[in-house]
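Propose amino acids for all 273 sites.
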């Protein structure tokens, strides 16, 4: 039986709300995790479909099929991908920047912003957010997800940057943080299409009910309902032409950095090639 990955952060909830609340019938087990855990489970075949870091698709070209119509895409600001810094971003050259191990896409995005947009070459260290405290060791810290959304600014790090906003300011484009990806095998095509249809039904359930879902589930995420609604409204959960253009632009910069080998073709579930 297919297994569906589920990002435990609140940004995934509008798409999966129908499934996880039982409002939309889904016979497939749901496996929760943070983005990097789900990336690893997807590539290892431990789950079959998941909202997964957009960089994961390009890191393993040809392995996955994209489920059309589904993404986690910031229109401008994202609120939950946060770089806190002791110095202005243009002054981080040769300074230490702590990168969360919870996200692969955001790490590459930060490198694009630092190296390609600002000409900054920083020294990077990794940390496990929610477990390790990098603030005494680093000059800047990247935090993602609900933890970033709930952080209060500290006087020691007076500069705070929303990476979605920085990307949009430079490119004029939205930013695709996650795609629903299928670990594709032709023999499972019918089941994968069935799960895709369930996900689309869950999206149709969730998107018109954002206010209701925020009021009902805010406590589960530890985020005030009004803030949660504001956060969800930062996103397009679609994958139309503008989102696809933004995704390919990101892959172009990632290839320029050497983070991926080349810009991959976008191959969707149901395509024959």
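Proposal:
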């Amino acid at each position: 039986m297919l297994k569906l990955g589920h990002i435990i952060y609140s940004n995934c909830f509008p798409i999966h709300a129908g499934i996880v609340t039982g409002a939309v019938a889904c016979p497939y087990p749901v496996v929760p995790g943070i983005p990097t855990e789900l990336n690893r489970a997807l590539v290892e075949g431990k789950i079959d479909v998941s909202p997964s870091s957009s960089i994961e698709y390009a890191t393993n070209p040809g392995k996955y099929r994209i489920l059309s119509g589904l993404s986690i895409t910031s229109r401008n600001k994202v609120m939950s991908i946060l770089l806190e810094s002791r110095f202005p971003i243009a002054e981080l050259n040769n300074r230490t920047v702590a990168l969360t191990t919870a996200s692969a896409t955001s790490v590459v995005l930060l490198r694009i912003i630092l190296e390609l947009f600002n000409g900054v070459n920083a020294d990077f260290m990794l940390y496990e957010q929610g477990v390790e405290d990098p603030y005494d060791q680093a000059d800047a810290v990247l935090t993602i997800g609900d933890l970033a959304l709930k952080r209060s600014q500290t006087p020691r790090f007076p500069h705070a940057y929303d990476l979605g906003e920085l990307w949009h300011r430079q490119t004029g484009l939205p930013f695709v943080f996650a795609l629903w990806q299928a670990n594709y095998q032709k023999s499972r095509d019918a089941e994968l299409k069935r799960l895709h249809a369930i996900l689309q039904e869950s999206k149709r359930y969730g998107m018109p009910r954002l206010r209701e879902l925020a009021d009902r589930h805010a406590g589960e995420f530890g985020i005030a309902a009004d803030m949660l609604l504001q956060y969800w409204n930062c996103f397009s959960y679609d994958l139309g032409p503008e989102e696809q253009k933004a995704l390919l632009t990101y892959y172009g910069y990632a290839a320029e950095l050497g983070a991926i080998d080349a810009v991959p073709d976008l191959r969707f579930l149901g395509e024959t090639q």
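The chain has a mean pLDDT of 95. Residues 189-206 form the longest helix (18 residues).
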